[in-house]
Each structure stands twice: as C-alpha cells, then as structure tokens.
Design a protein that fits this description.
It is a single chain. The protein has 5 helices and 12 strands. It has about 250 residues and is an alpha+beta fold. It has 2 domains: about 100 residues; about 80 residues, no CATH class. It has a 12-stranded mixed sheet with strand order 7-8-9-10-11-1-2-3-4-5-6-12, covered by helices on one side. A hairpin with a 2-residue loop joins strand 8 and strand 9. The termini are far apart. The N terminus is likely disordered. Pfam families: DUF2092.
C-alpha cells in the first residue's frame, strides 16, 4: 500500500473512532433493538434453526470451539418445542400449554411437570424455581424497553453485510461485562441474522456466536409439542432450587 493510501486509511479509521466517541449511544442502533423487540413480540408463530459456536478453555490453556444446532418451534401463547443437538446427542424440551417435559436422549431420561398458561410465564418459572434457562429464551423476552433494562452503555451502527443471502445491518453494543454484535435483517422483518457475544468478565474473553435461519410461513403440527416417552425411558424428578440458591 502506498504511503498516502496508508495515511488515508488511518485518517478514516480515526474519523470513525472519533464519531463513535461523540455518540456512544447511537439512536439508530438503539432504535433497531426496539424494532426487533416489537417485531418478535408480534410473532404468533415461527420455526427457527440456529448454528452456534461456543469457546471453552481447556486446562492446558488452549481454547476450543464447540458447535451445536438448535431448533425452536413456537406458537404463542402456549406451545413451545426446543431441540439442542450436540455431537449427535440431543436434549429436547416440550411445552403443550399444560405441562413441560425435559428429555435427554443420551441418558434416555425425562422429567415432566405442570406448567403455567403461557410461554412467558413458563420461562420465568423455569428460571425462578429450577434455575433453568432455555436456549434462545431472549427471543421471547426482548421488548422495546429491554435495551434500557439491561444497561446498554454503548451502541453503534457498523454497516451493512450479506449473511446467507440476506441483507443485514451490523450493530455493536456494550453492557456490563458483555460486548455483543448483532446483524439484523433489513426491511419490514427485523429478525436477527447473526449474534456474537464476548464475555468481558472472563480473562479469556470467550465468544459465543449464533447464526439464525427463520421460517415464518411453514405450518407447525400440534404433535410437535407432545411428548411420548421412548422405550425404556426413565422418568426422574426435577429438583427445585432452595431459597437463595442459584446454579
């Protein structure tokens, strides 16, 4: 690269940094979160497939990336199915509006408990009573006011990208102990295309990334939310948290 080109590149980089410093909470980046929240809350049903990669540091100090695939089927207000597949073994969650069931395919055991009347109340019950956080639960919880509730201190619009054939806008956010990047689909359906989270409260700064594939039109069979125990599956009780205890 020629010297004047290097100087120009440095000038542009410095200009972007200065602009970010002057406006650490970009209104457009915050408005994008609000639009996403409103749209997600307005979906009465959806099918979702995600590919995730999570860093984990070994005792040797080497960082390894573990991958898994998650499928979500949801029909508001009271139907939910989640399947997490990692290394060929799956963990499944069923909610039919009356009961929820957790099933571990590898161990072939399941637990079944009464459930409240909506997905939102179910997520609160799982967290408060059992210390269970379902994968992608934030997709149901995110609302137009969530950005202020979680304490976002910095919000930037980075630019536009193409992800899996979709035009997406790239944003970056910072909140206590977490940096995260979000790519949102352009147009009237502001759905997440990709998410990258970096933990600042961990010296290794591990990353967790998720790529989203949405389906808003295919029909969802009611049978998807019903659980039939496989042969020789063992029912086990689900232990509640003690007062003041968190996992």
């Amino acid at each position: 690269m020629k010297p004047r080109h290097i100087a120009l590149a440095l000038l542009l980089a410095c200009g972007c940094a200065q602009a970010a410093d002057k406006n650490e909470r970009d209104p457009a980046a915050l408005a994008a979160l609000s639009s996403m929240g409103s749209y997600l809350q307005g979906l009465d049903r959806f099918s979702l497939s995600t590919r995730s990669e999570t860093d984990q540091q070994l005792d040797s100090g080497q960082t390894i990336a573990f991958q898994h695939h998650t499928q979500v089927l949801a029909v508001r207000p009271d139907k939910l199915y989640v399947n997490v597949d990692q290394a060929g073994a799956s963990r499944r969650f069923f909610y039919d509006g009356k009961h929820f069931t957790l099933y571990d395919q590898r161990l072939n055991y399941y637990t079944r408990e009464p459930a409240p009347e909506s997905i939102d109340k179910l997520l609160d019950l799982l967290d408060d009573r059992y210390g269970i956080e379902l994968p992608l639960a934030d997709l149901f919880r995110w609302s137009p006011g969530t950005a202020d509730e979680v304490g976002i201190s910095q919000a930037y619009t980075i630019g536009k990208d193409s992800i899996d054939g979709q035009r997406c806008v790239h944003y970056a956010y910072r909140q206590p102990e977490i940096d995260w990047q979000l790519w949102l689909r352009e147009g009237p359906q502001p759905l997440p295309c990709r998410l990258v989270i970096t933990r600042r409260d961990d010296a290794e700064r591990p990353r967790h990334s998720v790529s989203f594939a949405w389906d808003l039109s295919s029909p969802i069979s009611p049978d998807a939310f019903a659980f039939t125990p496989p042969a020789k599956a063992l029912p086990v009780p689900l232990v509640q948290l003690r007062a003041g205890e968190r996992p």
